[in-house]
Each structure stands twice: as structure tokens, then as C-alpha cells.
Amino acid sequence: MGIRNFNFILLLLLFLFSNGISGKEINGKNWTTHPDIKEIRSIYDRIEKEIKNKELASSKKEFEYSKPYKPTLKIAFFNKKHIICKYVEEMGSDDSAIKIEYYYDDLKALRFVFITGGSVNGSRLEHRLYFDSLGKKIWEIRKIVKGPGYTFPIEWPTEEFIWNPEKEFNG
Q: What span, in angstroms and rounded, lies between the C-alpha atoms of 151 and 128?
């Protein structure tokens, strides 16, 4: 086999593995035990443990309310290499508020987003989004934990997410 054929096969295999074709798809029955989700959960667990143990530096910025859903609070958690591994924004309007927590891996890739929200009608939301190491959304689950519901998105628009927390926090 020539080097070109070898390189082609290697690239094809990398493509297949990175796109999940080789593994089981994530679904409503297996998402809590799926290896890709478990990997992301381990990133989340590690970061939360480091926060609890005060192993991460943090910086907070507060802002006056200026318009609906413009952040009034930003918090960045930095690892020992001064890379943001967790970024939090809180925002709201006259009748609702949300907190968005972003979790990044060691290569600065967004891996998990946890959104909690509430509204004046008593509704409470939990929304989770999981991303592979290339930033592709691999699973999303939304749950109204209390109340009749609200106009929070069914599928959260990923173009609104913070892909570069350093720029967002310092900008």
C-alpha cells in the first residue's frame, strides 16, 4: 500500500470516528450512559470539583441592567494556565431571568452548556447541551422542572453561545 492510500484510509477513519458513525447514536434512552456524554460529564465534574476545592481562580464583572437579556453578571473561572474552563452569564427581563454556564475542555472547546431559568409565572427551566471536541452539538435536553412553562426556546440557538469566553469576558 502506498503512502497516499495509507493517508487516505487514515483520514477516512478519523472522519468516521469523529462523526460518530462508528458508535451508537445518542438517544433519549441511552444519553445518560453514552460514552460521549460520560466524557463531557467528567469534564463538568472535574471543573465543579476544582471550584469547590478553590483550585480555580475566578473573576467577576457586574453590570447595570440596560436592556432585556444583556448580561448583568459575568464570571470566569481560570485554570492554572489562565485558560477559562467555566464561564457564567446571568441576564433577564421584566418577567424572566436565565443563568447560562459554559464548560470548556483543556483545548478551549465548548463541551457543555447548562441553562437554568425562571419566569414570573413560577416556571423553572433546565436546559442542557452537549458538544463534541469539534464543537458539534451531539445532544440537547430541555426540562420544565416547575410551572406551566414559558417562552424559553425549545431548541436553544447555538449561535448565541459563547465560543470564545476570553473575548466575551474581556470585551
A: 17
Answer whether residue 8 shows pLDDT above 90.
no
72 C-beta neighbours (distance < 10 Å), count: 16
Q: Are 118 and 110 in contact (CB under 8 A)?
A: no
pLDDT at 1 over 70: no
User: pLDDT tens across 103-153, in order?
Assistant: 999 999 999 999 999 999 999 999 999 999 999 999 999 999 999 989 899
Residue 7: phi and psi, rounded to 5, are -60, -40
Q: Which domain holds residue 79?
A: 28-170
Structural domain includes residue 7 = no
Please tell me the distance from the alpha carbon of residue 66 to that of residue 118, in angstroms, as a whole number: 19
Whether 124 is covered by a domain: the verdict is yes
Q: Exposure of 160 by Cβ count < 10 A (0-12 exposed, 13-18 middle, 19+ buried)? A: exposed
Instruction: Please check whether residue 6 lies inside any domain of the structure.
Output: no
pLDDT of residue 171: 80
- Quote the number of domains for the chain: 1
Residue 29 DSSP label? T
Mean pLDDT for 64-70 is 94
The verdict on residue 23 lying in a domain is: no
Give the whole-angstrom CA distance, residue 6 versus residue 45.
Answer: 39
